[in-house]
Design goal:
The complex is a heterodimer of chains A (132) and B (109). Chain A is 20% helix and 45% strand. Chain A has 132 residues and is of the alpha+beta class. In chain B, strands 2-4-3 form a three-stranded antiparallel β-sheet. The chains are: A alpha+beta (132), B alpha+beta (109).
């Protein structure tokens, strides 16, 4: 579970879904935060949540109509206006045309990798869950 | 700067040797740095350093045993890290459902 993977099928072609995942106005309607994203490699993203939390991201890769990846910077501003270091993760959103429309896949993973295999005991199980 | 607890946990676990130490501790049970170093390809001094980093992140706890310290795993932070990832997944479930509704609404307009 080191990697969070989620997917949904949307009854619309990828060209209709792409603006929704790459344009600031569209992102702001569903992301849960007000989003300003410069969807170009190296572009900045600023995400402001209703509770006052603010996080920033850097766009890593863009294939229009197909793939967008960004990396969260390992800091956030708390609602109290303090700087807080948080785990750095990378988010990759891919769109694939399927007969029903578009398969949208999201992979978010910590920006480090853990090797596989672990057994026994509660802690080992938890570590295995992180590594899986 | 303040540090999120999960960040401290993930940072501590980002080091492969520290993961080996955790793994060895989980297999051997409570151990001293000397006991751990015997089964790891690093010196006792290095193990001690890693153990202290792991203790800072709350991943291991130490109790004194004679001249040495006895370390054991504290499973709670690991469980926290797992639930942090579970929360992350739940947030994406909500977002993707909202994305689908957004695109559907857009197409209806």
């Amino acid at each position: 579970m080191q990697t969070v993977e989620r997917a949904i099928t949307i009854p619309a072609p990828p060209e209709d879904v792409w603006p929704a995942v790459s344009r600031s106005d569209d992102l702001s309607t569903w992301f849960g935060a007000e989003v300003e994203l410069d969807a170009r490699p190296g572009g900045r993203g600023v995400f402001r949540w209703p509770d006052g939390t603010e996080r920033q991201a850097v766009v890593e890769a863009v294939e229009p109509g197909r793939r967008l990846s960004f990396r969260w910077l390992p800091f956030q501003r708390t609602p109290e206006g303090e700087a807080l270091t948080v785990p750095s993760t990378r988010v990759e959103i891919t769109l694939d045309a399927v007969p029903e429309g578009t398969l949208v896949r999201v992979v978010e993973q910590p920006a480090f990798s853990l090797p596989a295999t672990l057994q026994t005991r509660a802690a080992a199980t938890a570590l295995a869950a992180i590594e899986a | 700067m303040k540090r999120d607890r999960t960040d401290a946990i993930f940072s501590a676990l980002a080091d492969p040797t520290r993961r080996q130490v955790i793994r060895a501790l989980s297999q051997q049970g409570p151990s001293t740095a000397t006991g751990l170093a015997a089964n790891l390809p690093v010196t006792r001094q290095a193990v001690t350093k890693h153990l202290s980093a792991l203790a800072d992140a709350g991943l291991v706890t130490a109790t004194r045993k004679g001249r040495e310290k006895l370390y054991q795993i504290s499973p709670r932070p690991l469980t926290d890290a797992v639930s942090w990832m579970a929360d992350l997944g739940a947030r994406w479930d909500e977002r993707l459902a909202a994305l689908r509704d957004h695109v559907a609404g857009f197409r209806r307009r």
